[in-house]
Amino acid sequence: MSPALVRQIAQRNGIQLKDDLFTDQDTFAWNDFLSFLQAFDEASRCLLNSDDYRDIMYEYLKSCAEDGAVYAETFISPDHASELGMSYFDVQVGCIQGIEDAARDFDIIGRVIVTCVRHLGPQRAIVVAQQMVDNPHPYFVGFGMGGSETAHTMADFSPAYQIAADAGYPCTVHAGEICGPESVWDAINHLPISRIGHGVRCVEDEKLMSVLAERSIALEICPSSNLALSIYPDWASHPLNQILDAGISVSLNSDDPPFFSTSIGQEYHNSAKHFNLDIDQLREISRMAIRSSFADTSTKKHVLAQIDRDI
User: Fold this and answer.
1) What is the dihedral angle through the alpha carbons of 154, 159, 163, 166, rounded to the nearest 10 degrees?
2) Is 51 part of any domain?
3) In the chain, what percentage of residues exceed pLDDT 90?
4) Residues 31 and 83 both lie in one domain
5) What does pTM read for this prediction?
6) Do residues 172 and 37 both lie within one domain?
7) Into how many domains does the chain fold?
8) In this structure, are residues 224 and 262 in contact, taking their beta carbons and an 8 Å threshold?
């Protein structure tokens, strides 16, 4: 959600945003992970109907397409909508419309991963997982969890994840960013996941890196986000190349782009500049991203063919 779009939607819905939500440079105002979550929640407060979710999905996929992306998975949190009185169905309708409008206008494929919020607790996560399972749609392809890594344990969320997995949904989870490798161990030992959101702290444990490679568990790497949140002090400290050298599957991601002043294209540009990755290596990262995506087999084949056709 860009600041401009947040203001536009807030005005449309008659919502008065907090004065300190934006900086003088027209970016979101925050200075650590907790204040980032608070700013995210405040911005989300203006989303009151399906049209709002349509506009966010459409504008985000438009920006991805302008960067050359042909496929994007976005994380959607029904909890934020529920707290404002919206139903899961309302959110779903808006996202579907945004995806279809963007596909028509920009030839980009959009898909959704439904996420629970860790610090809202395991019982709420069960509700979200059940809502997803009870309202299937081909654009809604997986289940995940974001929020504070320090709240509860991964095992606490096993019932919610099992609901999704038993219904055939692949799963991912936020781990190994704020907390260390123990949080990644916690995830892979207790949840039915094939991907880890972030997971960069795995480099602090050689055995863990080997296990991730052996089990083909992919990492959703968000370099600019890691630096913005001071997980690493500079580009030279970021372990992307170390992770690649370990044979771990990765994708490059923009996390929450307006909050971290980035885009998916910028992540590729930065990876070429700061990690000395050439075009073939970046293309292989795109292939890994699609292979580990939650898209159906025919969509994966279609997108992989697009990547190879551009050589």
Assistant:
1) 80
2) no
3) 79
4) no
5) 0.92
6) no
7) 2
8) yes
Q: Are residues 1 and 85 in the same domain?
A: no
Indicate whether 204 and 98 sit together in one domain. yes
At residue 112, φ and ψ (nearest 5 deg) are: -125, 135
Query: Per-residue pLDDT tens for 40-61?
Result: 888 888 899 999 999 999 999 9
First to last CA, the chain: 33
| 137 and 27, same domain (yes or no) | no
pLDDT above 80: residue 157: yes
Catalytic residue among 42, 66, 83, 177: 177
CATH code for the domain in which residue 157 is found:
3.20.20.140
Q: Who's near 255: CB < 8 A, 6+ residues apart? A: 222, 224, 225, 262
Helices (H), 45-157: 50-66, 78-83, 88-106, 122-134
Q: What is the pLDDT of residue 311?
A: 55
Q: Same domain for 19 and 102?
A: no
Give pLDDT, residue 310. Answer: 66
Inter-helix orientation angle 50-66/3-13, to 10°: 160
Q: How far apart are CA 175 and CA 260, in angstroms?
A: 19
pLDDT in tens, 202-259: 999 999 999 999 999 999 999 999 998 899 999 999 999 999 999 999 999 998 888 7
The answer to whether residue 177 is catalytic is yes
- Calculate ∠ Cα 1-4-52, nearest 5°: 50
Provide the domain limits for residue 101: 56-309
Please tell me whether residues 296 and 235 are part of one structural domain. Answer: yes
